[in-house]
Amino acid sequence: MTPHLSDAPPQQTESGSVTLNVEGMTCAACQSRVQRALQRAPGVSSASVNLMMANAAVRYDPDQVSAEALLDVIRSTGYDASMPVPGRSAQQQQEALDQTQQAEYDVLRRKAIVSGFAGAVAMIVSMPLMAGDHAHESVDPFMSGVMSTLTPALRQVMPWLYDIPAVVLSWGLLGITIGVMSWAGRHFYSRAWLAFRHHGADMNTLVAVGTGAAFAYSALATIAPGVFTSRGMAADVYYEAVILIIAFVLTGNALEARAKRRTSAALQALASLQPTTARVIRDDVEVDLPIEEVAAGDVVIVRPGERIAVDGEVVSGESAVDEGMVTGESMPVVKAAADRVIGGTVNGTGALRVRATTLGADSVIARIVTLMRDAQASRAPIQNLADRISGVFVPVVVSIAIATFVTWYVVAPGAPLIRAFSASVAVLIIACPCAMGLAVPTAVMVSTGRGAEMGILVKGGAALERAGDVDTIVFDKTGTITEGQPTVTDLIMSASAVDVTDFLRIVGTLERSSQHPIADAIASEADRRGAGRGAVESFQSVTGKGAQGVVDGRAVVAGNRALLADWSIDTAELDAAAVELEERGRTTVFVAIDGQLAGLIAVADPIRETSRAAIARLQEMGLRIVLLTGDRRETAEAIAREAGIAEVIAEVLPDGKVASVEALQQQGRVVAMVGDGINDAPALARADVGIAMGSGTDVAIEAADIALMRADLSGVESAIALSRRTMRVMRQNLFWAFVYNVVGIPVAAGVLYPFTGLLLSPILASAAMALSSVSVVTNSLRLKTAG
């Protein structure tokens, strides 16, 4: 028995927002009916029902409606609903969903196999009933052709079958069909009845009415054949058609269920990264504990080759850690004391001791999984058209089926009732709202999963769709195009300078007493070169100019020209070099020792190694690139030249960044903003698509639509390319879903019969219907190789 969806992983967010599990939805019409009911409920501001995830994300006013009342709203539409299950880890949530989906697939597969075998038996048993009777041939050319081909062989292999009285065969087929309908196809009829009771209709309605009509006709022909023979009509039965239609629909459902599991493969892989135990030091003893018992502050032992159990900070040890499964980074990252590590990543050859920081639902992997679930439960705007059509689809199809029956009954040249009956059943069976309901959600699920594998977290279908329309990308400078960490780029010594090592030891020692980022860069360079450290005897920071003091008994001045001029020190020897460096966006620091000019240090925030190539590829994609920064124009233009950007907007405050984004939007541009700092958050929120760098602040990441898990601008290119490919797949899915129904329904109704003699078999119609849903899901799965 399929587990109840209350076992599926739920999510509950802030007050007034809840994701409820919905059981029993099978097509876009089901989804549309539940969504409309929720949207009409008092106090509900928005509702998004996801067919793939079998859930409903609702935002509501707790003062007007409760989450429990929302369950009743869903149940009033004929579907079951359940509240979220609290306290589950990301891994437990995904395991529950996997179990539910696997159980659903196992049940559908078993029913499809059994009903398919029963259908084959029914075909064989039906052959003697049609021997010498060609009425069936004219109504169902497919079945007639199959049976006429197999009949000679069957007579040789099973001659005794033709000796059994027809009435016995008919009653035997009736028993088999009742068994298949009441077991394998039971949910079609029960759900159709529930929908009818709640004044609705869905895919189950079409299958139930189509097969139910065929069964009722055949049962009447079996129980009371005189009703037909007294009117000069053959008492034909269509049990094999009923069984095979159910078998084909179940086969399609099973293939669809299997494909759905594949769409969440990335989510399954992420959730499975979290180890279930951790080796913790307690009372100076190493003990293995369930991951749920690890507390913040515990020191966790990580041996070579193991997965790191928790998010934390390295206390001791050094190792290269493979973070690729979380960040998409291809190379291991060296970790040492004070570096942060992510739970679920793989340790290399070194041993580490890690102090646990964020745990459970606050861990990086749990937050990523939650973000992905929210994204996959969201809706892309392109789905709205499919929803509007799905809302009226089933009633329209039923009306077309009735019109088809009446038309054939009136105009058919021979056996009008049989022809009318066959054509109307084919119309009901071939119509498929499922494909329309799956067209967009499957693409969103696969795409967001693929994005996560690439280190790109997309926060929903709307962001995914908007990113595909972007034609202008605005980049922040510091920490986005650049490393965000000033470093020494040039060191020029004067003619009278001391030894380079002594020079760096003296100036590095002085700058360690300063809190300025440029001073940190100089001190770090001295450490990197192994210059050593001296003793600071006095220190003074001069605001806006630099620093001065005494190191190892020597007077040191480090700053701009103005500071050295205060000490009457001539900088002419290095002025030309300083001007050249400043034109390239460097910040220059003149250094004098004991009253003599000693050297010039250039400090800059260098651009990332990947920035220029990534920007060039974005430009090749036809995107307009703009550099937007609060830094001075000279520095901004120097960075822009180095990065290959022609358009620069500099010297703007955070509100100026928002105004710049708005100005581009007023030009009709679709703007993506890429940033990493708190000052970027307003512009990220105002842009059509906000993209936050993985090295950025939580505020920036929260304000963005897309978060890059690693500080690499190639992720921006990948995100745009993934979005564009996803939109192509969505449009293909919707196109084929619409075309399938627009073409298939008229063909099933018999519009080609007057010209070609073609009349579609209900059995072929059921196979086509199953294929349409599977083809949509399969097309979406192509996104697994995107990028």
Tally of alpha and pi helices: 30
Which blocks of ≥5 consecutive residues have pLDDT under 50? 1-14, 132-139
User: DSSP strand (E) fraction?
Assistant: 15-25%
Distance between the termini: 40 Å
Specify the biggest β-sheet: 7 strands, mixed
State mean pLDDT (0 to 100 scale): 80
Classify the secondary structure makeup into a structural class: alpha+beta
Helix content: 40-55%
Shape call: elongated
* Cα radius of gyration in angstroms: 35 Å
How many β-strand runs?
Answer: 27
Biggest sheet: strands side by side, in what order? 15-27-26-25-16-23-24
What's the short story on this structure?
The chain is an alpha+beta fold and 787 residues long. It contains 30 helices and 27 strands.
Describe this entry's structure for a reader.
By secondary structure, the protein is α+β, with helices and mostly antiparallel strands. The protein is 53% helix and 17% strand. The strands form 5 sheets. Strands 15-27-26-25-16-23-24 form a 7-stranded mixed β-sheet, sandwiched between helices. Strands 7-6-8-14-9-12 form a 6-stranded antiparallel β-sheet, with no helix packed on it. A 6-stranded antiparallel β-sheet has the order 17-22-21-20-19-18, with helices on both faces. Mean pLDDT is 80; it is low at 1-14 and 132-139.
Features:
7-stranded mixed β-sheet; 27 strands; disordered N terminus; 787 residues; alpha+beta; 30 helices; elongated; 6-stranded antiparallel β-sheet
